[in-house]
């Protein structure tokens, strides 16, 4: 990930509703949620959710898949991984022991490493 891609991704997350949507979908990995369920859980109108989902999808943070009449949204774990790696790429000035707590916290968030790659 380069600086421009990171800025696009971070700007998509810099709005409170979009950040809420993203965090909700992170909690529902790997199954994702239909757009209507996202709207219901966040108590927001469907058209409002649609605009935010489109922004997050354009930034590469979400993927969508049609299931019959529903569109199910999921977090793009590769994009999230790239963003996290970009943010910590030059971490700790060559002292890996300082990064150990950060790496441990990030590792603990994903109980199934196969779904986090």
Automatic annotation (TrEMBL):
Pfam families: HTH_20 (PF12840). SUPFAM superfamilies: Winged helix' DNA-binding domain. GO terms for molecular function: DNA binding; DNA-binding transcription factor activity. Keywords: DNA-binding, Transcription, Transcription regulation. PROSITE patterns: HTH_ARSR_2. CDD domains: HTH_ARSR. It comes from the Bacteria. Signal peptide: none annotated. The keyword DNA-binding applies. InterPro entries: ArsR-like_HTH, HTH_ArsR_DNA-bd_dom, Metal_resp_trans_reg, WH-like_DNA-bd_sf, WH_DNA-bd_sf. Residues 1-95 form the HTH arsR-type domain. This is Transcriptional regulator. It comes from Acetobacter persici.
């Amino acid at each position: 990930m380069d600086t421009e891609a990171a800025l696009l991704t971070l700007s998509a997350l810099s709005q409170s509703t979009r950040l809420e949507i993203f965090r909700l979908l992170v909690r529902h990995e790997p199954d994702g949620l239909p757009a209507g369920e996202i709207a219901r859980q966040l108590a927001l109108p469907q058209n409002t959710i649609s605009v935010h989902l489109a922004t997050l999808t354009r930034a590469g943070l979400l993927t969508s898949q049609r299931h019959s009449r529903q569109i199910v949204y999921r977090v793009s774990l590769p994009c999230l991984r790239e963003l996290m790696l970009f943010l910590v790429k030059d971490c700790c000035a060559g002292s890996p022991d300082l990064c150990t707590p950060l790496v441990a916290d990030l590792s603990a968030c994903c109980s199934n490493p196969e779904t986090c790659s």
